[in-house]
Amino acid sequence: MQDLKILIIGGNAAGLAAASRAKRIDPRLNVTVLEKGPYISYSTCGIPYYLAKMVSAADLIAYTPESFEKERGIKVRNYTRVDQISPSRKRVTATRADTGERAEFSYERLLIATGVRPKVPSIPGTDLKNVFTIIDLQDALHFNEALQNSIRVAIIGAGYVGLEMAECLQALGKTVHLYERAPHVLPGMDADMAQIIEYELQRFGIRLSLNANVLALAGSEGHVTGVKAASGLGIDPAEVVLLDTGVVPNVDLAREAGIRDFGECLHGNERAGHLCSRQLCRNVLRHSQAARPALHRNRRRKARAGRRRQYGRASYEVLWRDRHDCFEGL
């Protein structure tokens, strides 16, 4: 197993946890992580407090690519966007996001940990300037820039993330209007509990619109200017809009590589958090595996980083455990 080449797509919590677990099991392994953005190993849950200026962006970052490689012996290639996986050739083609340079990486085992992408509502105006979704730290930095010259902020979606953002932006002195299409905030919570939260939100000056089906975002000269909801009259002014309307698995790359049906591939023991490697070997992606954060259909945006790390570790354990019946001799 010396110098076995393991390639991981995604420098998120799951991908880095799998990489670290691989090195702990066998320090001789050649492990490389590809990340499309500039940052790895940071606290997603701390982003609202960065926006509220309670912490700096640097405080959220645990490792840089350089420090991660120095401490753990794992190569990290950031600014590297994977364009295609070629399972038959055991190659991945990628593009450097900062220079446009093309690159190719070989692997013997591949882990796909591409996480989620925002679920943007199908309404007019979501493409206007100053309309944001936040999935990673880079999104938060862009959102923070827009906040500097803005007072009125509309948040569409009163889930965990929407409430945290509302609290922190109100503390920052912004005028916050929170929209939720359900009858109460935190739709997964009992209504009587949600009423306590709603009372506190309004007590601190956050405007709350419930049963609010947002029909469109209004704009002028390419910039967002307001929100049109079915429950209101006219257009509520807004200089910045944050969409907290959920996420969907970011499976496009895996699907293009030939994984056809994610539901059938899920292992019977879902707590293991991985795709069944035997199914993958029989069907399409030999020598490959996918971390559950990219494939679970019902993951919530607010899932804790500890759970994501658990999925990453479990995914690598499957690669290691099944090496005799799936990988040797192929």
Question: How would you describe this structure to a colleague?
Answer:
With 330 residues, the protein is of the alpha/beta class. The protein folds into two domains: 5-117 and 247-327, FAD/NAD(P)-binding domain; 120-243, 3-Layer(bba) Sandwich (FAD/NAD(P)-binding domain), CATH 3.50.50.60. Helix content is 32%, strand content 25%. The protein is built from twelve helices and 18 strands. Strands 3-2-1-7-18 form a five-stranded parallel β-sheet. Helix 1 (13-25) packs across helix 11. It is elongated. The relative contact order is 0.16. Mean pLDDT is 84; it is low at 263-287, 292-304 and 321-330.
General form: elongated
Tell me the CATH topology of the largest domain.
FAD/NAD(P)-binding domain
User: What is the CATH H-level superfamily of the largest domain?
Assistant: FAD/NAD(P)-binding domain
The H/E string reads: EHEHHHEEEEEEEHEHEHEEEEEEHHHEHH
Strand content: 15-25%
- Main beta-sheet annotation: 5 strands, parallel
Query: What's the level 1 CATH class of the largest domain?
Result: Alpha Beta
Radius of gyration: 22 Å
Backbone structural class: alpha/beta
Number of domains: 2
Output mean pLDDT.
84
Portion in helices: 25-40%
Q: What's the N-to-C terminus distance? A: 14 Å
Counting DSSP H or I runs of 4 or more residues, the number of helices is 12
Poorly predicted spans: 263-287, 292-304, 321-330
- Which CATH architecture of the largest domain? 3-Layer(bba) Sandwich
Largest beta sheet: strand ordering: 3-2-1-7-18
- How many strands? 18
